[in-house]
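Contributing new records

If you add data, match the layout below exactly. Sequence lines come first and carry their own label; structure lines follow with theirs. Keep one chain per record. Anything else will be rejected by the validation script.
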Amino acid sequence: MDEQPLRFDTKIAVFLRADLAPWQRLNVTSFLVSGLGTQVPEVIGAPYEDADGVAYLPMFRQPVLVFEATKEVLRAAHARVLNRSLPRAVFTADLLSTGNDTDNRAAVRAVPTADLDLVGLAVYGPKGGVDKVVKGARMHP
């Protein structure tokens, strides 16, 4: 059987600020994509099962594109995400020093939108809309 590759009309993108340490990049990415999975159920595929019948949790049904951006590009992407009202998750520099979910939410709530010190952003939406948000960022090396 000759199967054609599946093409998605949506896109998941994660932006990471270029000055993050490697462990921070991994941590921020993990937190950001967890937000999309909980609020945008269509991004989640079916559960997995191996040949022995052991079940595994479902994961995203499509690739996640990870981009690197300067602070300025990240701020511009955030503005474009808000203008397009796309589902999004944010990670601010303050969250790198908090130790729990309650403090994380309080840290974001304490800062006006324009003053958020963004280190990460995840977005989901129609491919064309997300492509416009990605402008100025480059694929993560």
